[in-house]
Design goal:
Two copies of one chain form a homodimer. Chain A is of the alpha/beta class. Chain A folds into five domains: about 150 residues, MoaB/Mog-like domain (Molybdenum Cofactor Biosythetic Enzyme, Chain A, 3-Layer(aba) Sandwich); about 60 residues, Molybdopterin biosynthesis moea protein, domain 2 (Alpha-Beta Complex), CATH 3.90.105.10; about 90 residues, Molybdopterin biosynthesis moeA protein, domain 3 (Beta Complex), CATH 2.170.190.11; about 140 residues, Beta-clip; about 160 residues, D-Maltodextrin-Binding Protein, domain 2 (3-Layer(aba) Sandwich). Helices cover about 25% and strands about 30% of the residues of chain A. Chain A is built from 16 helices and 35 strands. In chain A, the strands form nine sheets. In chain A, strands 29, 30, 31, 32, 33, 34 and 35 form a seven-stranded mixed sheet that branches. In chain A, helix 5 crosses helix 6 and helix 9 packs across helix 16. The longest helix of chain A is centred in the first third of the chain and has 14 residues. The first copy, chain A, starts with 8 loop residues before the first helix and ends with a strand.
């Protein structure tokens, strides 16, 4: 194969599956523990199911012809010549005018060709009155009608569900041949990686991929063993790969995000006497993937970013296609010349599912938690926009309330206190309004200040939202946060503004707008502000900058300032309200959400009409 | 509660869930083994992720302002004052005109506010040429932008996916509190039940429910222990329940199908000092369900029929609603006054999924294997017909070729030899034609004899099938099967027809039509035939009747006669052909199907044009 040029995903999958099919050792397992395992044999029945003609009801086995004239007013009377229960082995036969009492599951006696349900009979000593005619074969399950001897029940390669297990039990097998579980060794790499449970050190991040890979491997029904975190050192890496190869069928490497890691892995594979089949795949994310073979076993280097790592693992190792059709209500520009695997978050909407592309990027772990699956965008596609897509699921979809809009920690508190299961997707206030319009969001948290000074309602009107209500939420305090003790108050800030090192927020954020308004009102030129050009993307990032001494002061909400132990001087208040689709007002979870909003103690001010509908459209 | 009247499914679920919530013991598990477990705590981050401003690319950390004039033709030059790798702890800062070489994942040095990707640079000694302008914040992932300290990551009650596990690892936790696995004891009941692996005895059937329940319990992440099969004997049953209660949180009983079993279970629960909460639920299937409590632990008696048993288990114990929208292309009459849980088989069609109700009834194990889920029909609904339905999934859906139509063992051989994964749904030839028309079937096996004597094509025309082809299949021989040695040939049968005890086939079957035609042609009155009224539903059931001595002779296909070691005299030949949707002719599996049909050795005669298209529409 080639490794100077990027290879296609098909080539990579083929290389992998060639080796996966090599590792197909077979073992026999007890049927009780076979669920989820993959059949290594065809299951062919050597019996008929049911193995005899069987009554489907409790009642009387009769000759149907004898009952033809029976109805409620004119019962016929038959002589009861015996009785047969489920499991009974009796050689009995009936003639005309006779019947046999029979239980569900019992064998049909000779001469009988139908069963009258007990509900339509009345027993009188040795005789029984029949109040309903039965047709021949009524209430009889015939021998072999379920499964015929010789019938193929399940094919080799089937991943066994409880229902499959039932079918195997039905034909009397209590053991099955399945493929042995694959053993996969996992090695994390990277100088910056430390293990969860250890103390966080400066400029280090916790290992994520070892855990997501191990969990995915367990979910697939394979075994894993973790060989720890290896520094960016070739000898260390070689040793770890060697150890892992001894005990496993496949070794997975992941963690390092740097471009150099790939070269390290490539050298390690070669120096261990292996061959690098693939170095670089023409997909996004996942370009840095390496596929090598050492001692006839696969050594695969996966991308370091968590979402990329998991998607590439899924694409390469997961052959069970679980897909779902969804509407993509956004616009996404795809990289040309590479197949893109776009992670999406699914929400249940009025008309099925909608798939939102995840905005935080593949480096973000929250992208990973929200990724229900991914959409494959072929390399010749440039734009994905308002269309139906096929979502490849990364596992179970979690359903619940859809809360789409601006993120606020208050929402988390409400969901927690109310014990409400919800999926929160943070797309900003305007994105929330749009999601309500499309029927995808049940609730949208919004805080949009109009030029008129009014919050939220003008935007609902402007964007022509219909069939929704605005529920008053809470008031967030915006202001300056800082840790220096020599700032006395707002006057001091204005007077000495040039002395302080600022950290600003990103353009388009409400906080940025407030800061600009503040400067304008006090006649301060923004060019005089040290750090005006340094932007942070969240309240929390501003707070952290100040705590770490990178900046002296910045604007943000009081809740975050307090969380980080910073001093806070309020500047303005903003309404964070909830736009809710009308048809969802009767939903139990939505009702609970509003009730909890009213009752719960929040780290924000609540207006008197909190939880009330303040606008309807 | 009440147990003379049938209770509603809601009451039953409430009774169960009240006890399920009692059993919520908590344990701490290692994060590596937490996938699939249910969180017993909220997971709140006490760190920011990332915990520092982090480079998303390999390149140079710069002051964005310094690069504004840079482009391909006019690079700017910056002095490289240091380098920082992922994990490096360095206190370095840049001023205007300077930059620092930076690796993906490394901390952004003080003074820098953007990263230029290495692709747009050229290093020259201590200096680097920058060929592209960057905006402030470009290629930087800021501290806390992914997860904020104090943010709720996952809520109590979440069933952990690999992605959730990743999020927990990201915030540095390597242990989580989860609910302990429930321990469930399983007891099978019924005189007619024997264990798989044992020799099949007359009038016995193999235990299925113990296996499907155990597998479902394992799939849910709980533990099970099987306490064997108990006869219909109260004392035995009491002893088994007592044993199971000692070691488990819940005891499940199942197996017996007879009406008497319920009373036995009820008495056993009471005599063990327990209380029967529910005896009978107003649902179909599942009426005989019993819910009792002994020593504050649930004892639940499930229906005996496999599909009923599994559906009732799912309804009562499975709180994770996995549903899927599908089209119901049939007509189903539902029982009034009871909520019906109709098992359905899903097939992927042109426009999403279609849900077929399973026709064999809840006693059939093949109903179970084909049941991808069930549709809930509310008690006031009488008819379900050509409409969208919500399917409650019983697990993973298996996709593959959809082969819908008349069943033939030849199809199984082709699928096996060709190693083709397919779902076969047996709805008869005409049902197959309809499924092709609706785009649900990819292939339909059909064998329909027209009055003209021509097979299949007249019916395709009559039902106005479009965009499909008929591929010539094989020839099945119909004839008489028997085991007696004193039948010499067809002349003997005709001459001595009154002497033999016949078994007939069901009305509407092709074989029945043939038999009637045979009688007519030879001037035989059907009333003279002993057993004309005894109908079997399959070829195999006819054969079994003869093998078991219930009948002497019957009509069926040669393959089945041979399978059962019966003698066979041919009467007629019929064409079993394949109707295939045109757009599927390019499908790999369909191509393989046709190729295999041509090549494979089948237990049927193949005409010369086998595998060729003989009609197009």
């Amino acid at each position: 194969m080639r490794y100077l040029e990027l290879c296609s995903i098909e080539e990579a999958k083929e290389a992998i599956s060639k080796y996966l099919s090599k590792y197909k050792d077979v073992e026999e397992v007890d049927l009780f523990n076979a669920v989820g395992r993959v059949l290594a044999e065809d299951i062919i029945s050597d019996i008929d199911v049911p193995p005899f003609d069987r009554s489907q009801m409790d009642g009387y086995a009769v000759k149907a012809e004898d009952t033809y004239t029976a109805d409620e007013d004119n019962p016929i009377t038959l002589k009861v010549v015996g009785s047969v229960k489920a499991g009974d082995v009796k050689d009995i036969e009936i003639n005309h005018g006779e019947c046999i009492e029979i239980a569900t599951g019992a064998g049909i006696p000779k001469g009988a060709n139908a069963v009258v349900m007990v509900e339509y009979t009345e027993k009188l000593g040795d005789y029984v009155k029949i109040y309903k005619a039965v047709a021949p074969h009524e209430n009889i399950q015939y021998c072999g009608t379920d499964i015929m001897s010789g019938e193929l029940i399940l094919r080799k390669g089937t991943k066994l569900t409880p229902r499959d297990i039932g079918a195997i039990a039905a034909i009397g097998k209590n053991k099955v041949k399945v493929y042995k579980k694959l053993n996969i060794g996992i090695i994390s790499t990277g100088n910056e990686i430390i293990s969860p449970g250890e103390k966080l050190e400066p400029y280090k991040i916790y290992d994520i991929n070892a855990y997501t890979l191990a969990s995915s491997i367990l979910e697939k029904g394979w075994n894993f063993k973790f060989y720890g975190i290896v520094r960016d050192d070739k000898e260390e890496l070689k040793k770890a790969i060697e150890n892992a190869l001894k005990e496993n069928d496949i070794v997975l490497l992941s963690g390092g995000t740097s471009a150099g890691v790939g070269d390290l892995t490539e050298s390690a594979i070669k120096e261990l006497g292996g061959e690098v089949l693939i170095h670089g795949i023409k997909i996004k994310p996942g370009k840095p993937t390496i596929v090598g073979v050492v001692n006839d076993k696969l050594v695969v280097g996966l991308p370091g970013y968590p979402t990329s790592c998991l998607i590439v693992f899924d694409v390469l190792f997961n052959d069970e296609k679980k897909t779902l059709k969804a509407f993509f209500p956004m616009r996404h520009i795809s990289a040309k010349g590479r197949t893109e695997y776009l992670p999406v978050s699914l929400v249940k909407s009025k008309n099925g599912y909608s798939a939102y592309s995840i905005t935080k990027g593949s480096g973000a772990i929250t992208s990973l938690s929200n990724a229900d699956g991914y959409v494959v965008i072929e390399e010749n596609r440039e734009i994905l926009e308002n269309e139906d897509v096929e979502v490849h699921l990364l596992g179970d979809i979690k359903v619940g309330l859809n809360i789409i809009g601006s993120h606020c920690i208050g929402v988390d508190v409400i969901l927690k206190e109310g014990n409400i299961f919800a999926k929160t997707i943070n797309v900003g206030s305007l994105g929330g309004i749009m999601a309500i319009k499309r029927g995808e969001a049940d609730i949208a948290g919004i805080h949009l200040l109009d030029n008129s000074g009014e919050y939220n309602i003008p935007f609902i009107k402007k964007y022509k939202v219909r069939d929704a209500v605005l529920v008053r939420g809470y008031i967030r305090e915006q202001g300056f946060m800082f840790k220096r003790d020599n700032i006395d108050g707002i006057e001091d800030i204005i007077k000495n503004i040039k002395k302080y090192k600022f950290i600003n927020r990103n353009k388009g954020s409400g906080t940025r707008i407030l800061f600009d308004k503040f400067l304008k009102e006090h006649g301060i030129n923004k060019d005089e502000i040290d750090g005006y050009g340094i932007e942070a993307k969240t309240h929390s990032a501003v707070a952290v900058s100040i705590v770490m001494g990178k900046a002296d002061i910045g604007m943000g909400i009081r809740t975050v300032a307090e969380q980080y132990g910073l001093r806070f001087i309020p500047i303005a208040e903003e309404h964070y309200d909830f736009l809710i689709r009308k048809e969802k007002l009767d939903d139990e979870d939505v009702k609970k959400f509003i009730e909890t909003l009213k009752k719960v103690k929040l780290p924000f001010k609540k207006p008197e009409n909190c939880g009330e509908i303040i606008f309807e459209c």
